[in-house]
Write a structure and sequence with these properties.
It is built from four helices and six strands; from the N terminus they run H-H-E-E-H-E-E-E-H-E. It is of the alpha+beta class. It has a single domain, classed as SH3 type barrels (Roll), CATH 2.30.30.90.
């Protein structure tokens, strides 16, 4: 995620080579505010994994990332109609496929 944010050229080349990059799962931290999709995996260990699952953030859940103020280290999402606030590191472990 950092390499893409930094604009490293190999990321663009890789995504181009793999086809439509919008179809690839990506961490919730890489989804722009106002956009969303379906949770495909949660890449963390216990106890955080159980916490995220208890919040409804398990594969198949529909989520939308809310707009965020610059410099805010927390991410607010709407998950199945519930507003949830996550730390940046928590949100980075929730991978989604963006809605088209």
């Amino acid at each position: 995620a950092r390499a893409r944010k930094e604009g490293r050229p190999w990321v663009k080349d890789l995504l181009s080579a793999m086809g439509d990059d919008q179809k690839l799962p990506r961490p919730l931290t890489m989804i722009p505010g106002g956009k969303g999709g379906t949770v495909t995996r949660v890449t963390t260990d216990e106890p955080l994994r159980s916490r995220l699952f208890s919040l409804g953030l398990s594969p198949g859940a529909e989520v939308t990332r809310k707009e965020q103020s610059a410099g805010d280290e927390r991410i607010t999402i709407d998950a199945e109609g519930r507003a949830i606030v996550l730390e940046w590191t928590e949100a980075a472990s929730v991978w989604i496929c963006a809605a088209h």
